[in-house]
Amino acid sequence: MKEYLILLFLLFSTQDKIDTSKMYMIYFTRTGNTEIFANYIKEKININSFRINPVTPYTDNLTEMLEYARVERSNNMRPEINGTLPDISKYDTIFLGYPLWHSYLPNIMINLLEKMDFNGKTIYPFNTYGTKGVGESLSDIKTYAKGATIKDGFAISDSEIKIKENSQKKIDSWYNDNFNNTINEEPIDENEIGNILNFKSYFLCIIFILLA
């Protein structure tokens, strides 16, 4: 009897939780700022991830790197990715992280999007930036991630991402807005919400009394 009640309690108390086993993260970072962003997300939800590393590393010199990024863009280059790309076939939701380069998606990210199958996936883009927020990067993702549903981008500046307390609050708010509010598709009026909460409280009290 007790085992049955415990099972009911577990099922009841976890029914609204998001299934994070269907989530995966792919990100590219050059200076480490986007990796800080990625790690903040992974602190909130424990998901597997793949960091994109170029076969030929980018220079640490910012001026030279920005000029090279222009060359990559204007020549439609596809920087080679080091290692084997991940299998995302069992995942439904993909967090896609990157730095914004000249208002666009880095070309190494475009190379990845072209090589992988995102058909039927839902992509949540996140990025770090110097001055332009999400820029034109969402347009790039929509162009190259064929068949995917692309959500609004979420950006944090290079300077702000290093302030953990502020950044984590924004990330929590972004995550909650996108996932915690999707549990109920239809709006529920205040009276119905009250009834649901009262029922849950009553149900849990009964369980604890029976288990005592």
Describe the protein in words.
This protein is of the alpha/beta class and 212 residues long. It has 2 domains: 1-16 and 192-212, no CATH class; 19-182, 3-Layer(aba) Sandwich (Rossmann fold). It is 43% helix and 15% strand. It has helices at residues 2-14, 33-44, 62-74, 107-115, 137-144, 164-178, 190-211; strands spanning 23-28, 48-52, 93-99, 122-129, 149-150, 154-157. Strands 1, 2, 3, 4, 5 and 6 form a 6-stranded parallel β-sheet that branches.
Quick take:
The chain is of the alpha/beta class.
Topology:
Elements lengths: L1 H13 L8 E6 L4 H12 L3 E5 L9 H13 L18 E7 L7 H9 L6 E8 L7 H8 L4 E2 L3 E4 L6 H15 L11 H22 L1
Parallel strand pairs: 1-2, 1-3, 3-4, 4-5, 4-6
Helix pairs in contact: 1-7, 2-6
Assign the CATH class of the largest domain: Alpha Beta
Order of helices and strands: HEHEHEHEHEEHH
In the CATH classification, which architecture of the largest domain applies?
3-Layer(aba) Sandwich
| Secondary structural class | alpha/beta
Helix content: 40-55%
Tally of helical runs: 7
Major sheet size, sense and barrel closure: 6 strands, parallel
**Relative strand content:** 15-25%
Q: Per the principal axes of the C-alpha atoms, what is the gross shape? A: globular
| Count of distinct strands | 6
In total, the number of domains comes to: 2
Oligomer: single chain
Query: What distance separates the N and C termini?
Result: 12 Å
Rg calculated over all Cα atoms: 21 Å
CATH superfamily of the largest domain: Flavodoxin domain
**Low-pLDDT segments, ≥5 res:** 4-16, 182-190
Question: If you consult CATH, what is the topology of the largest domain?
Answer: Rossmann fold
Provide the residue-averaged pLDDT.
Answer: 85
